[in-house]
Amino acid sequence: MNAGRKYLNTDDLAGKVFVTAGLGGMSGAQAKAAKIAGCVGVIAEISEKALKKRHDQGWLEIYSTNLDEIVGLIKEARSERKAISIGYLGNVVDLWEKLALEEENLVELGSDQTSCHNPFLGGYYPVGITFDEANQMMTNKPNEFKELVRESLRRQIAAIDKLAKRGMYFWDYGNAFLVECQRAGVEMLKENAKDDKDFRYPSYFQDIMGDIFSMGFGPFRWVCTSGTPEDLKESDKIACQVINKLLKGDMPEWVKQQYVDNRKWIVEADEHKLVVGTQARILYSDQAGRTAIALAFNEAVRNKRITAPIVISRDHHDVSGTDSPFRETANITDGSAFTADMAVQNAIGDAMRGATWISLHNGGGVGWGDVINGGFGMVLDGDLETDRRARSMLSWDVSNGVARRSWSGNDKAKEAIIRTQKTVSGLEVTVPYQVDQELLQNFFN
Ligand SMILES: NC(=O)c1ccc[n+]([C@@H]2O[C@H](COP(=O)([O-])OP(=O)(O)OC[C@H]3O[C@@H](n4cnc5c(N)ncnc54)[C@H](O)[C@@H]3O)[C@@H](O)[C@H]2O)c1
After folding, report:
1. CA within 20 to 30 Å of 239's CA: 51, 214, 269, 335, which one?
2. What is the CATH number of domain 218-423?
3. Which residues, by range, are in coiled-coil regions (predicted)?
C-alpha cells in the first residue's frame, strides 16, 4: 500500500501488478499482503513444497508452471481490476525475462524476496537447472554453483532494468538483492553515487518506510502462551482500546497518523486470518504505545481477562535492536553507521532492566558480517513487579535507538526524544545542537 502511495501516487492498487519472488518463511506473506493491498500479486517460487504450503493455507490463490498461462492470468486480473495472488512455480528469472519480452508493460511494481543474504547455500536458486540439481550442486560443485548464481542474478537484473525503463518501480526488500547483483559484477550504483551503497534502485526501508525508526515506531509483537485464538482476539481488543486512549492525548500530527494507521491494522488483523501457528501478533508502535499495551496486557493476565501469560518481544528490524549499514541504520549519515555498538548496548540494557531473555547475534536480514542484532523476550505473568520491569525495559528498548538517531542528526528522532523526556520520568538525554553548515564552512575557509 505504501509503495503505491509512494511510487504511483495512489492508495488504490486495483488493476496494478506487483511482481516478486519467494513464498518461504517471511516472503510467504507477500501473497497475502498483495491481496490485502488490493493489487495483482505475482510471486515466483522455485520450491514446490514452499509454494504448496502457501496455497494450502489460502494465502496464494492460484498457481501455474506455465508462463503463457501466468501472463494470461495477469492480463485478465488487470482488466478486471481484481485483487488476486498468482503463483509461478518456477525460477523468477524466467518470469522476469518473459515479462520483459511482452509488448505491453504489464508490471507497475517489482521487488524480490529470495534469500539473497545467503545466495550460495540455498538462499537463491540459479536459473537453468532444477531445484534438486541446485541442491546437489551447491555442495558437490560449490564454485560452479556460485558462478551460476552470479550469472542468474545478472540475467534477472537485466530483465528488471528493461521493465524499469518502461515505467516499472523496483525496490530492494532488505534481502541484499542489490548488493549481490553488484557482487556479481553488475554496475548497480547511481551515476553520481555518494557512497558504495547509493544504488540506482531504492531500498524499501529508506524509500517506502521513511525514517520511521527515528519516530520511535517499530514492530512490537506479542505471543499468547495459552495458544488460544480467544486470547489473541482479546489482546487485539486491548491493544485497540489502548490506542484509542492514547489518541485522546496531545501529540504531533505525524504520531497521530501512525497510531491511526496501526489501529486500522489491528482492527482488521483477525479477519485476514494471518495466524498460521503460534497465536501471535505484530503491531507497529512507539515507546508510549508499547509500554501502555504491555501494562494493559499484564493487568489482563492478572485479572484473568487473558487466560495465560503473554510474551512481548519485537522484530530485530526495529528502532534500537540492529546495527546494519545496508538496512536498519542505513539512514544514519554521520559516518557512525558502520559501528556495531547500539545492538549490544540495547541487549545488555534490556537484560539489566528485566527482560526474561535476550539474544545477541550476527546475520539475519542482510546477512552474516553485515549486521548485529539484539533482541529480547519478556514474560508478562500478571505480577505487579512485572509492571515495573516492562516500564523500565521498554523505555530503554525504544529510547536507546531514538537517542542514537537524534545524536546522528535525524530530525524526527530529536523531536521524538525531546517529547519522550517530558513523559518518562528519569529519562535524560543530551540533545544535539546542529552546527550551521555555512558557519562551519567559513571557519575552515
Ligand atoms: N524486508 C524485511 O523486513 C524482511 C523481512 C523478512 C525477511 N527479509 C529478507 O527476505 C529474504 C527472504 O526471507 P524468507 O524468510 O522468506 O526466506 P526463505 O528462504 O524462507 O524464502 C525464500 C524463498 O525464495 C525461493 N527462491 C530462491 N531463489 C529463487 C528463484 N531464483 N526463483 C524463485 N524462487 C526462489 C526459495 O525457494 C524460498 O522458498 C531474506 O533475505 C530475508 O532476510 C526481509
Report:
1. 214
2. 3.40.1770.10
3. none
